[in-house]
Design goal:
Helix content is 53%, strand content 5%. It has 401 residues and is mostly helical. Strands 2-3-1-4-5 form a five-stranded parallel sheet, with helices on both faces. β2, α6 and β3 form a beta-alpha-beta unit. It is globular and about 130 Å long.
């Protein structure tokens, strides 16, 4: 073979090798990219599936524990609704249960120790209702229960001003009026008034009940309730005039951001124009003493807690309807026997608070801004809820034994 032929052969061989080499270069790169994409996709979908399975497993754990949650009447749906994502929060039903269980208090709960109804020898129930907490629903239930359980109901008109600043003389007069109602038969009296200690005026103590609501949600509800057409018409009939147009068009968010006097929630603030500004949910439990008037102060909250613990049979909340109904029926059977069945049988015809569609959605930022000024009011609100939960757990623990 000549030298030129040999060179030509080697060049052709090199060209063939280069062709195969360059032809194979894209193939490995595409393979790596494809494998990497598949690995990432599989990892992502496995993570999503595992997370979903973990959530379902937690729900099944609740449903399949007959000795704990199910025995206490707590279904998976009940817990995962209002308390979703908050299972470790002591202010929720599930969180309170876990706390009581971990500290050993759950097994010590006894309905007799949590039942103030036993401390009164009375067939007189006093519902000193807090406005905008769903009181109308409870009044409707009491009206229907009156026929079933043989008692009389009287409630003041909803247009009557709130009585949260009564003198001692006025307290005695109201106490005597209410006491006289229960002389001849079982009686329920409803009025939005601050707590009155009947015993301190030498009168028989009635059975006290009330409702509470998330403080910020409550004031938002009241803010827009005042601006509804039917409230405006009722005030016109009472005062002979309407508010200015700006009053009806002003949003709660603008009211807060512009620090309108109507939306000021400053520490230790007293009453503004009247006692009906609805900032102080605790005011209905504290009473009529001067220390109860300033907003969000420790002394007023401490007095309110003390009165709830000592003098109120039940302080419920429609945010925990099942729990509230069960506790009312067990601790005050004279008036609330059959209330749970009646509630669910008549649910569609009751004035349920969550069905109000006239209240616009408020941003979480505004709620958080307002929430910061209600620290002690929230402390009282959670105190009432935790007490309600303890009463509920005590019933079910008692039934187990």
């Amino acid at each position: 073979m000549s030298l030129n032929a040999d060179r030509s052969y080697k060049m052709k061989l090199r060209d063939v090798e280069n062709a195969f080499k360059y032809r194979r270069i894209p193939y490995p790169k595409r393979s790596v990219e494809l494998i990497a994409l598949l690995a990432i996709s599989c990892t992502f979908f496995l993570f999503m599936h595992t997370n979903k399975l973990n959530s379902r497993l937690k729900e099944m754990e609740v449903k399949l524990q007959p000795s704990e949650f199910s025995a206490l009447g707590l279904t998976g749906n009940h817990i995962s609704g209002h308390d979703a994502g908050k299972h470790d929060d002591i202010n929720t039903l599930h969180g309170t249960y876990q706390y009581l269980k971990s500290t050993g208090q759950l097994w010590q709960l006894n309905p007799k120790h949590l039942n103030n109804t036993l401390l009164t020898n009375s067939e007189l129930l006093f519902f000193n209702r807090v406005p905008r907490t769903g009181a109308k629903t409870l009044i409707e239930l009491l009206s229907r229960l009156g026929e079933l359980n043989n008692f009389i109901l009287e409630h003041t008109p909803f247009s009557r001003p709130i009585a949260n600043h009564l003198t001692v003389k006025q307290q005695i007069a109201l106490g005597e009026y209410v006491s006289d109602l229960g002389q001849s038969s079982a009686f329920v009296y409803v009025e939005p008034v601050g707590y009155i200690d009947f015993r301190s005026h030498h009168l028989p103590q009635p059975i006290y009940v009330n409702l509470v609501r998330d403080p910020v949600e409550k004031i938002i509800s009241w803010y827009y309730h005042k601006r509804t057409p039917w409230t405006a018409l009722r005030m016109y009939k009472t005062n002979g005039k309407f508010q200015k147009r700006d009053f009806y068009t002003k949003s709660f968010e603008d009211c807060v951001l512009k620090r309108d006097p109507e939306c000021l929630y400053d520490y230790a603030m007293g009453f503004q124009n009247d006692s009906g500004d609805h900032k102080r949910q605790s005011l209905f439990f504290c009473g009529h003493a001067p220390l109860c008037e300033p907003f969000n102060i420790p002394a007023a909250i401490a007095r309110a807690k003390q009165n709830v613990e000592r003098h109120f049979a039940v302080v419920g909340s429609w945010e925990d309807a099942n729990v509230t109904l069960a506790v009312l029926e067990h601790y005050i059977p004279r008036f609330f026997r059959g209330v749970k069945d009646l509630y669910f049988a008549a649910e569609h015809s009751l004035a349920l608070p969550q069905r109000n569609h006239w209240k616009p959605k408020i941003s979480e930022q505004i709620k958080s801004l307002v929430h910061a000024n209600f620290t002690l009011e929230y402390e009282f609100y959670y105190f009432c809820k935790q007490r309600l939960y303890r009463q509920y757990f005590a019933i079910n623990r008692h039934l187990e034994l």
